[in-house]
Specification:
Layout: H1 25-39, E1 46-50, H2 58-61, E2 65-68, H3 74-84, E3 89-95, H4 96-102, H5 104-113, E4 118-123, E5 126-127, E6 133-134, H6 158-165, E7 169-174, H7 178-190, E8 195-200, H8 212-216, E9 225-227, H9 243-257, E10 264-271, H10 277-284, H11 286-290, H12 304-310
Parallel strand pairs: 1-2, 1-3, 3-4, 4-8, 7-8, 9-10
Antiparallel strand pairs: 5-6, 7-10
Helix pairs in contact: 1-7, 4-5, 5-6
The structure holds iron/sulfur cluster and magnesium ion.
The site of iron/sulfur cluster has 11 residues, from loops.
Length: 311
Amino acid sequence: MTTVSLTVRDYKTDVHNNWCPGCGDFGILSAIQMALASLQIPPHKTAVFSGIGCSGKTPHYVNAYGFHTLHGRVLPTATGAKLADPDLTVLAVGGDGDGYGIGAGYFVNAGRRNVDITYVVFDNGVYGLTKGQGSPTLRKGMRTKSMPAPAIQDGINPIALAVGCGYTFIARGYALDPKHLSGLLAEAIKHPGSSFVDVLQTCPTYNDQYTKEWYSTGPEGHSRVYRLEEIGYDGVVQDPSDEGEIIARKTRAVAKSYEWGDRIPVGVFYQVEAPTYEDGMAAVNPRLGSTPVVDLDVEHRDVTPLLEALR
Ligand code: SF4
Ligand code: MG
């Protein structure tokens, strides 16, 4: 039998890409395709779902199953797909406005469920598709070019929020370092549980504050963005049965996530092995656990007893 090796090209489509020139989205798209190729996950075993926003176009550009969902609704859609077909590698993508604003409730609850999906947020501090209004991650005092005045609300901290929600893999990447980001995404996809990757993404059209130059040049001339592994930071829980270690690593991850400005860390902040939602479902309903919904014979099923029971 001949083994065909998949390359990045196999995950590309010929759909015309209409992101603005220089948009950080391109780096994230490349990183997703590189991660899938590195893991050799066939396109027909992959599904990419998106919310609304510039990033929402991502499924159009990835050769896989895909669905461009409603504003803020990407996580319940991705969750449903994964529960129906556990063999699928499921990616959910969306912007910071989509995920932390409109979809905030879903963001919280997807974390605590620990469904085996990967959520990638294109975090540019603005609602790019609707002309650059400040998003939930824009910091107090920042004023992008389409705002009449500086932001008077503080921005949220997605990493700290994810820790509180219960995500079991939590990382931050940088769109203009797609090679490093692809490694993070590959780890996130391999992780059995809810993986979350917040990606700092430049929007050259509307965000003139968090620019490529700003990220790459700090006050002393060095890059603001640095990798957690460079300082020996390790966010992986070694003993998942040790509640004390879990709390200590979560606390450290939250503290580290507040480092911002002159130095901005990227990498894995926190990771722990924990039972998934799928494990829980299989425990309470062994039939569902052994037979994926997509394989259930629903056409020849007599639902009369169920309807009678509900009378
Ligand atoms: Fe990218 Fe910003 Fe253009 Fe949207 S508006 S495609 S985020 S540069
Ligand atoms: Mg945005």
